[in-house]
Amino acid sequence: MGLLRNRLRNRFGSRAGVALLATGAAVLLAAPPALAESTGADVQFRVAGNKVVELASKPFFVQLYNDGPQSAENIVVKVDLGGLDTDKLGVEPPVGCGDPDGTIYTCNVGNLLPGEFNNLFSPFSVTSLEEGASGPAGSFTVEVTSDTPDPKGDNNQKVTVPVEVAPVAFDLIAIVQDVWADPGAGENGRERVPPGATVPFVFDLINVGTVTAEDLVWKVTLPPYVTFAKNEQHDGCKYNAERSEATCELPDGQLHPGGALSVLIGDPMLVTVAKDAPGPGALVGGIVAGGARRTEAPVSELAAARATASNSQDVTVSNATADQKRKANAAAANGDDNTGGEADTSDNDGAFSVHTAANPADLEAIGGSGSGALGDKVTIEVRARNHGPASSPSTTLTVTAPTGTELVDVPTGCEFTAPGKTAKCEFTLPAGHDAVGDFSFKIASSTISNNGTATVTGTLEDPKPANNTAAIVITIGDGGGGGLPITGAKVSVIGGTGAAVLVAGVMLLLFARRRRVQLVTPTEDA
C-alpha cells in the first residue's frame, strides 16, 4: 500500500497546478457571532489532473474548499484555455459558464459553507487526438474569487497548469463528496448529521485511461469524531482498531477503461458520527486515496481505445502496430509496487468533510482558594470541566489574579496575556473530562481584593453559562498553600471535584500541552 501512504503523506503537497487545502484534521464550527474573532471566507482550490492518456478523454477538476470562518458567497472560477495545444488536444469547453471572452471562461459555482468541499466541479475536458503524441501539450490557467472578503487571498490567485499527454496506461480519478445526513434536504439542500447517527459514505474510482487497471487498492481516512459503523464490513477492507481508517485491496479487481469502482447508495460504506461530536460545523480531515498495482492485456485495451476514438467498429488487436505494442507493454511494466503504470496520480485522491448538527457543551470553571503571608507564593489548582454532551474542540481557560497578588507561574502550554495579571490556556476538552492545572500567585500586598477569577469559554452553545466563571480567593494568613476548590455554579460539589479524571490510569493534564485543533467562528449565519 505504498502508493496510498505516499499520497496521504503528501496530500496537497505537490503542485498539480496549485498546492492547496485543509492542513489536516480540524473542526470548523458555526459559532455564535459574539465568539467570532475574524471575518471573511478563506476559499482555497486545487487543480486535480494534468495528464491525459493517448487517445483517451478526461475531465480536469477544480476542487474547492472554504476554510471559513464565514460562508463563501457566489464563488467564481475563471479558466483560460488559450494555452492548450489544440493540435494534440480536443477541448470540450465549460458547460453553463456563459459566453467566453476569447479563450477565458467565467463559471459561477455557487456558495460554500465553512469547512465544505466541492470536488465535483469540472470546468472542461480534453481528448488526446494523435496517436504517439505523448509529451507536453500546452497549459491552462485557473483563478478563484468570491463575493465574501478573503483573509488569505494568496491561496486562490491565478495558477498555470502544464498539461501532458501520457503514453498508454490506466488513469484513475477519485470522485469524493462531503457527508450529509440527506444531501437532498435541509439547509441549502443539505441536512446535517445528528450526533450519534449512522449515514452512508459514497465515492467512486473511475478509470479514464486506455488499459485495464488490476489489483485495486484504496484507503479511507475519516475525520475526527467519525468512525466506521460497527456493522460496516466491505470485502477486501481491513479496519484499524479505532475504526477510523479502512485499508482495502481487491487483488482480482479490475477497472476497464471507462469503468468505475463505486461505493454508492446501493452498497455504501457506513460511518457513525460520535455522540460527543461538536456542532453545528464541519469535521474536516477525511481523505480517500486509490490506485492499482498492475495492468494486463494492454494491447487489446489499446485496440479498444483506438476503436472508441475513431468511432470505428472494425478495429481489432491486430491493428496495433509493433510500436504501439511496445509502448503498451512498457506502460504495463512501468509501474512499481505502488503505481502499476498509472498515468496521472494527481487526481487519485480527494478530501471530504462530515457536516454535523448542533450539539452543545456545558463548560464549568472550578477555581480555588489559598492563604499565605506577605511575599509567599500560593499555588491553586484550577479546573475546566466539560459536562457535555459535546466535546469542546477549542476551549479557553482565562485566569485572572486577585488585586494585591501577582500571577507568577502557569502550566506548560499556557501563556501570560498580561504579565502578573492574567493568563490563557487553550486546549480540547472531551465531554465528561476535566482539564487540570496549577497556577501560582505571589502575595504582593497586605490587602487582597476578591476579584480573582477562572473563566472557561468555548465555541459551542453552552446551555449553562452561569457556571463558566469561578472565584480564585487568596487571603492573608499563616500560609499553607491552596485550599478547597470553588465552582462556578451554586451547587454542591459534583461527584469528586477534587478527583482527577483518569484516562487509562493516567491523569488527564490537558494544560500540560496545548492541543492544536483548528477552529473557525463565523460572524454571520454560516
* Domains (count): 2
Mean pLDDT, as a whole number? 78
| Main sheet makeup | 10 strands, mixed
Structural class call reads mainly beta
Query: Uncertain segments of ≥5 residues (pLDDT<50)?
Result: 1-24, 31-37, 297-340, 489-526
Terminal CA distance reads: 39 Å
Strand fraction band? Answer: over 45%
Percent in helix:
under 10%
Q: Counting H and I runs of at least 4 residues, what is the number of helices? A: 3
Radius of gyration: 28 Å
Shape summary = elongated
Total strand count, please? 36
Structural write-up:
The chain has 526 residues and is mainly beta. The chain folds into 2 domains: 2-358, no CATH class; 360-512, Sandwich (Immunoglobulin-like). Helix content is 6%, strand content 47%. It has 3 helices and 36 strands. The strands form 8 sheets. Strands 25, 26, 27, 28, 29, 30, 31, 32, 33 and 34 form a 10-stranded mixed β-sheet that branches. Strands 1, 17, 19, 20, 23 and 24 form a 6-stranded antiparallel β-sheet that branches. It is elongated, with a radius of gyration of 28 Å.
